[in-house]
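Morning F.,

Quick status update on the modeling queue. The single chain you submitted on Monday has been processed. Sequence for confirmation:
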Amino acid sequence: ARHIAQVLPTPDFDPEAPAGTPEYANATVYKIWHLAFGGPDQPGRLYAGTIPGGLFVSDDGGDTWELNRPLWNHESRGGDLFAGDATSENQWGGTPASIDYGVFEPGIHSIIVDPRDPNHLHVAVSSAGVLESTDGGKTWAGRNRGMLMDYLPNPEADWGHDPHFVTQCPGQPDHLWQQNHCGVFYSDDGAQSWKKVSDPDTGVNFGFPVAVDEQDGRTAWVVPGRSDAQRMTIDGGLFVARTEDGGQSWQALRNGLPQENAHDIVLRHALDVSGDCLCFGSTTGNAYLSEDRGETWQCLGNNFPPIYSVRFG
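Structure tokens below.
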């Protein structure tokens, strides 16, 4: 974390300055929220998304890091204050996930590298939205068309969206899924546009994680929660919802999951899929596995500490 923190301040920052000096005092990374690998032809490439809204890049396996300044200085965030043409109008909001650190800052929790082209990137920011780069991070453009937010006067505003997690189908990379603070969204055109595909009658709306089938971009799974104000299961029963038609319909999968007195919530990185296997863990320390695409579930263990991330190796 110290390597990452050292590149946050102004361009004339001295990376050798010891902790406690004025230069170092301005360099704060509150949380490393997500790590991602580069493409097959980028050995050693790693990405790190942080609170406060920084994207860091390493080309030596994490020994050294560099802040992606085009994103840090994006016009939606006020521009580059050292370039002389900045607006200083910051349209990025904070995320409640930063409140534990005594701040209200944005955070990058999703970094997607296109398997066809490692220079094609998507990142998701709470609370700003989704951004895309097609040149390895030299330039960035917002990709929020079709997204809606019910907490701002203009639900279709360009910025201020709160994606909870965004993921991509490896076999059909133009298919992206997003569990958002305001519902579930789906794109089949590479995030050029989004469609809200929530189904409140099934309970599919609020939640954090989403996983997509490795080959079929129309098939995805979510673990719904009740609401922002009540972050727990719906009516005390834990279930996973699956769609196989791009969100036109959803099926609630409950077999093997507790249906009484369950108060689990599953965080954004705590659901994963590999082939026909799915696995997720909850904040109440319960872990569940399905080997048949969610049709049935088995408990792997209870009373663990809160589970923040689940990934297949």
